[in-house]
Design goal:
It is built from eight helices and 20 strands. It has a six-stranded mixed β-sheet, with helices on both faces. Strands 15-18-17-16-19-20 form a six-stranded antiparallel β-barrel. A five-stranded antiparallel β-sheet has the order 6-7-8-5-9, covered by helices on one side. The N and C termini lie far apart (45 Å). By secondary structure, it is an alpha+beta fold. It is globular, with a radius of gyration of 21 Å.
C-alpha cells in the first residue's frame, strides 16, 4: 500500500536550499530542475551534471546460490558476471511481459562460497521486483534483502566527470571500465563506485550511506564547479536518456511487451543452464518475432516545432502504423524528437510519408535509427 506522503531522499534539504523545483516521482519528492532544463542538459553533454538518484531501489542478494537464484529469476546470465562487473538485464513475468529493467552488480565475496549481488530496480517498480525476487528465492540457498534505505545514490555524468571524481577519490578510475563497480572512498566516506549511467555520457554512480550523502554531494560540487558542473533534475535526465535512445519503464517497456517486442531480445540468454521465469513464453516470442516482426522501436525527428507526446499515433497516409512512447524537445538536435514503436514496414530510416498525429494535425517526421546522439569516445 503506497501512502500519499512522498518519501524524501537524504539530500532533500539541500535540493530545497538550491531552489529546486520538486515533483512527485514514484512516491518520492524529487528535484525536477534547479534552473533551466536546457542548461542542465547541455552541461551534462559538454561538462558535467550532478544527480540525486536515491529513489532507485537497491536489493541485495547473497548466499551460496545467489547466482543460481538470479539466473532463475532474471532473463540474463548472471552467473557469468565477474566480481566488480555489472550487467543490464530484465525481470519478466511468466508470460514474458517485462516487470522491470535492471542493473545487477556483482560485488566482492564476503565469506567463502557466498556470492554478493546488488540488483538496482527503477523506483516505480522497486517493491514489485523485491516481491518477485523474494518469491522466486524459494528453494535456493540465498537471501534477498531490501536495501532501499541503506543507500543514497549520487550520479556525476558528463565528459568532465572522471576528472571531477578523481579529485575526491583514491579509487583507480582509469582501470574502471564501463559497466563495472568497485568499492572505494569518495570524500573520505565508503562508496560503491560504478561506471554506469543513463545519459549517454561517461559518468559514475556512487552508492553511499544516506548519512554521508550531503558530504559527497558537497565535495563533488566543490571539485566540479570550476569545471562547469551543475546540479541536474529529473527533467534533463529524461531528455538525455531520450537522445541516447535508452528505454524508460512505463514508456518503452511494460508488462504488455516482451524484451523481443521491445527490440531488446539480446538481453534474454536462452543458452544459460536451467529454467528461468518466462523462458517458454520468451522462446515463443523469439520465434514469433522472427516469422512476423513486431513493431520496431525507432527514432523520430520533427520537421516542424510541435512536440510529440507518449500515446500519440504515428501515421502513414492517414492510417495509424505505430505509437509514440516518449517525446521531448532535443536540446542537442535543436528539434523535437520521439521514440515510437512502428510497424516493421515503416521502420526503415528515411521511410517517406511518416507523420505523428498531434491533436488532429499530421506533422511530418523523419524516421531515424536509435540513438539520436552518440558521444565521441
Amino acid at each position: 500500500m503506497s501512502s500519499s506522503v512522498p518519501r524524501h531522499t537524504a539530500l532533500d534539504a539541500l535540493h530545497r536550499s538550491l531552489g529546486a523545483t520538486m515533483t512527485d516521482f514514484a512516491g518520492w519528492d524529487m528535484p525536477l530542475r534547479y534552473g533551466s532544463e536546457r542548461d542542465e542538459h547541455n552541461a551534462v553533454r559538454t561538462k558535467a551534471g550532478l544527480f540525486d538518484l536515491s529513489h532507485m531501489g537497491e536489493i541485495t542478494v547473497t548466499g551460496p546460490e545467489a547466482a543460481a537464484l538470479l539466473n532463475h529469476a532474471l532473463v540474463g546470465n548472471i552467473a557469468t558476471v565477474g566480481v566488480g562487473r555489472a550487467r543490464y538485464t530484465m525481470i519478466c513475468q511468466e508470460d514474458g511481459g517485462i516487470l522491470d529493467d535492471l542493473i545487477v552488480y556483482r560485488l566482492a565475496e564476503h565469506e567463502a562460497g557466498s556470492s554478493h549481488y546488488m540488483v538496482v530496480a527503477n523506483a516505480s517498480n522497486a517493491q514489485v521486483v523485491l516481491d518477485a525476487l523474494t518469491e522466486r528465492a524459494a528453494g535456493f540457498d540465498a537471501v534477498v534483502r531490501d536495501d532501499r534505505d541503506a543507500y543514497a545514490l549520487i550520479a556525476v555524468q558528463g565528459p568532465e566527470s572522471p576528472g571531477i571524481l578523481k579529485a575526491v577519490t583514491d579509487a583507480d578510475l582509469d582501470g574502471l571500465k564501463y559497466y563495472a563497480g568497485l568499492p572505494g572512498t569518495v570524500a573520505g566516506v565508503p562508496a560503491l563506485i560504478a561506471r554506469t549511467g543513463y545519459t549517454g555520457e561517461d559518468g559514475f554512480e556512487l552508492f553511499v550511506a544516506p548519512a554521508d550523502a550531503e558530504k559527497v554531494w558537497q565535495a563533488l560540487t566543490d571539485a566540479g564547479t570550476p569545471a562547469g558542473l551543475v546540479p541536474c533534475g529529473l527533467s534533463c535526465r529524461d531528455t538525455l536518456r531520450l537522445e541516447a535512445g535508452m528505454p524508460l519503464y512505463g514508456h518503452e517497456l511494460s508488462t504488455s511487451r516482451t524484451p523481443f517486442d521491445a527490440g531488446l531480445g539480446r538481453v534474454v540468454k536462452f543458452e544459460k543452464e536451467g529454467d528461468f521465469v518466462g523462458r517458454a513464453a520468451l522462446e515463443e516470442a523469439a520465434s514469433r518475432a522472427e516469422q512476423n516482426p513486431p513493431r520496431v522501436l525507432v527514432g523520430l525527428i520533427a520537421e516542424g516545432r510541435r512536440v510529440p507526446r507518449a500515446g500519440y499515433a504515428v501515421v502513414v497516409g492517414g492510417e495509424p502504423v505505430g505509437e509514440v512512447t516518449s517525446g521531448a524537445p532535443s536540446p542537442t538536435l535543436g528539434k523535437p524528437i520521439a521514440m515510437a514503436y512502428v510497424d516493421a514496414a515503416h521502420a526503415t530510416p528515411g521511410t517517406p510519408g511518416v507523420g505523428v498525429d498531434i491533436r488532429g494535425a499530421h506533422e511530418p517526421y523523419e524516421v531515424v535509427a536509435l540513438p539520436f546522439y552518440k558521444r565521441q569516445k
